[in-house]
Amino acid sequence: MVLAQLPVAKIFWLGVRQAARPISKVATSFAERSDGFQSCCVAVSRLVPSNRVSVPREEAVQSGCAILGEAVVFGVSGAVLAYEYVKQKEAERAKEDTLQRKASEERMALRWELRRLEERLHQQGEALEALRKVVDGKATPLTR
Q1: Between 123 and 135, where is the model more confident?
Q2: Coiled-coil segments, which residues (predicted)?
Q3: pTM for this entry
Q4: How confident is the model over 85-129, as pLDDT tens digits?
């Protein structure tokens, strides 16, 4: 019953976020075999203060791979969050546009109704004036 209440798109994006973990593992395994990535990890480990004089190369590579994996998961999650935010804002804007369009149409209908009533009032005023003239004896009644 709870799944029926969740939109399909949100379930899809949850799946995408969960798929980020295996993608992270693939990126990590590729990075572990890359000499350039290993050199980068060692250089970064030298910049980070440590109690040791130097961090062993293997430990630096493992730390770099862990950071890369978390960055992939965080990046995918952040992208999904940003997408959902933009999508929600677009939906709110569309709803507001619809409300404004509906209000504009209602105002237009009210203007037309007001014009129709003003014309009817003018016609009734003319008819009333004609009746007053008949009652006052200044005019002859209309004959058919």
Answers
A1: 123
A2: 100-134
A3: 0.55
A4: 898 899 999 999 999 999 999 999 999 999 999 999 999 999 999
Ramachandran category for residue 72: left, alpha or beta (phi over 0 → left; psi -120 to 50 → alpha): alpha
- Residue 43 and residue 61 in contact, taking contact as beta carbons nearer than 8 Å: no
Which pair of structure tokens corresponds to residue 5? 């209440």
Single-letter code of the amino acid located at 6: L
Give first-to-last CA distance, the chain, whole Å: 75
Q: How far apart are CA 12 and CA 5, in angstroms?
A: 14
**What whole-number distance in Å separates Cα of residue 117 and Cα of residue 86?**
46
Contact indicator for 80, 16 with CB cutoff of 8 Å: yes
